[in-house]
Amino acid sequence: MVRTGAAAAALRAVCSVAIVFGITLVCFRVLRLGASTTGFAYLAAILAVASGWGLIEAISASIAAVFCLNFFFVPPVLTLTVADPQNWVALFAFLATSLIASQLSARAKQRTSEALERQRDMERLYALSRSILLTNMDQNVARQIALQIAETFDFSAVALYDRSSGAIHRSGPGELLPGTDDRLRETAVKGTLFRDELTGTVVTAIRLGGEPIGALALSGALPSDTVLQALANLAAIGLERAHAQDAATRAEAARESQELKSTLLDAMAHEFKTPLTSMKAASSALLSDAVAEPEARRELVSVVDEEIDHLNRLVTEAVQVARIEAGDVQLNRARYAAAAMLEGVRREAEPAGEGRAISVEVEPNLPPLNVDAELIKLALRQLMDNALRYSPPGSPVFLRARRDGNRVVIDIRDRGSGIPAAERPRVFEKFHRGSNAGQTRGTGMGLSIAREIARAHRGDVWLEKSSPEGSEFCLSIPVTPEKAAL
Q1: What is the phi/psi pair of residue 361, to 5°?
Q2: How far apart are CA 159 and CA 218, in angstroms?
Q3: Of these four, 139, 241, 366, 476, which has the most CB atoms within 10 Å of its CB?
């Protein structure tokens, strides 16, 4: 690259001299101008060369112009002899003027070039900072930063070392020098700077609060120290933002986990009280002498048996909910008829319905569902429980299964007061309870659990409609061909 640049400069210097000789030929042979007019022509050409190419080319043109001016225009012509001493003064004045003008023009060009380069650097740094602020936190942030630096500044290779994870992320079409990985780790520990102008490689520390948190290696057209420091600072901001996001996510997960435990324990305590109270009352009556008739004793034993089943179902649901929240959802799929599944959900919901009508409607010729029946029943019970809690006593609840393209949709509709429009976007958030919940018991987890179960089956749960006449939730399950399900 250095040899190529020197050859180009030498070629431009030769061209500058050629331009001077061309002007000489035109002025001496064609136009037959005098020394003064020709001198102004030379000076104009030298200024053009200085502003277009540079100082070295302008000096070459100045020397050639003095030589031509002396040889062709200063008496005696066609010799290098100067007869009049005043002409020596004129020649030296011309040379000094051309050199000073060339230097000033070249300096102005350099300053303009530097100003344009600074402007380009500022625009690139702004674009890079905007890209880092808009980085997708769901993907690897360090890898995205390395890619954005390479694309924004056209580096042939970029490597970013994140000290917290110990990973090196690379980008760019080229390759860094061998041993750069070790140098990155060393720089991240010692905070040193490595620059190799011959290979066009630089390695700098990424600091935050004075402490190195990583290192950045660049290959290609090396930036200035100011730009390099700005790149390192932007990389530090991006990495720290990612670390802060990870910490916030972990803290939120821990908080939600603790809140989940508290709400589940509270909900289980409330749920267990009803069957335990019934069982206690039945067992106390059986132990006393107040109930002697066999029929009455059998009825009390039936109450105990039903409440034991109720407790068993509550414990099973609590375990399933904990597994779902822990992300440990394993589907034990089998093929089940939608009608039988909905009828089972209806029977299990009857005690909580307190005598209200729960109707089931199943569209004819529905295909069997390839699902984990226990989990789907749990999701439907959550939706049913939501409908029963938020609708007036005595009002009916409707269950309907229908075919919709390549999925089966189960609708749960109630005659409640509906969900306020402002709260509808939040109905599936964990722990969210509507403003019309009042003293209604619950954890605010039911709809979220139902949606997680449906999505584990590649389906979904959504609020179809809500009005003062009632709400309708839908649960969809994809239809799986029988061969694919096996």
Answers
A1: -130, 125
A2: 7
A3: 476
Maximum CA extent, the chain: 152
Which pLDDT tens digit goes with each residue over 135-176? 777 778 888 888 888 888 888 899 999 888 888 888 888 888
Rounded-to-integer distance, Cα 237 and Cα 223, Å: 19
- The H-or-E segment that residue 325 falls in is helix 294-325
User: How is 405-453 classified by DSSP, letter by letter?
Assistant: TTEEEEEEE--S----GGGGGGTTSTT---TT-TT----S-HHHHHHHH
Give all domains of the chain, ordered by start, each with its CATH number.
Answer: 2-120 (no CATH), 131-244 (3.30.450.40), 249-325 (1.10.287.130), 334-485 (3.30.565.10)
For 407: left if phi > 0, alpha if psi spans -120 to 50, otherwise beta; the answer is beta
* Residue 339 main-chain phi, psi, to 5 deg: -65, -45
Nearest to 367 by CA among 408, 414, 396, 308: 408
5 by Cβ neighbours in 10 Å (0-12 / 13-18 / 19+) ranks as exposed
* pLDDT tens profile 65-114: 888 888 888 888 888 777 777 777 777 887 787 788 778 777 877 787 77
